[in-house]
Amino acid sequence: MSAHIASGRWVVWATFFVGAMFQVMPLPELAEVWRPDWLVLVMIYWAMALPHRYSVLTAFTLGLFLDVLLGATLGVRALALSLVVYIVVLHSMRFRNFPRWQQSLMVASLIFLYHFVIFWAQYAIVGDSEFVIDLFLPSISCVAVWWWLFWVLRNLRRSYGVK
């Protein structure tokens, strides 16, 4: 394995780590309900940019890590993130050709699906969740974050030659 390919993988896993740290970063109580799903957004970007390398298995692993990190029911976020990334990988070429505003709407719908699957799994399977509209507010905040995050991750990918 060449050092060039290894450095590219290092950059991707570093962005996953930073996304996980942003995911658990303390926020004021008012802003907590609007918290973007940083790790999910980073995973969506890499699944869209490099679907042959970062796909459902990576998403499942990161979802399990996120479940452990947040102290949630094991496998709930892994299931939700795997489903979202499967859709992204399936339509990655189409998503890449969308303009940014359409990409951000697709990301909002994927984040909505992510939170719906988490709610469904906790309510229907585990039975310890109740529906509140605040569950879907991160879908709105992720639209604004996507524009900036896409630009940052694309520039990182190009400057480090991640392939």
UniProtKB/TrEMBL annotation:
The chain crosses the membrane at residues 6-26, 68-93, 105-125, 131-153. GO terms for biological process: regulation of cell shape. It is found in: Cell inner membrane; Cell membrane. InterPro entries: Cell_shape_determining_MreD, MreD_proteobac. Involved in formation of the rod shape of the cell. May also contribute to regulation of formation of penicillin-binding proteins. Belongs to the MreD family. This is Rod shape-determining protein MreD. The gene is mreD.
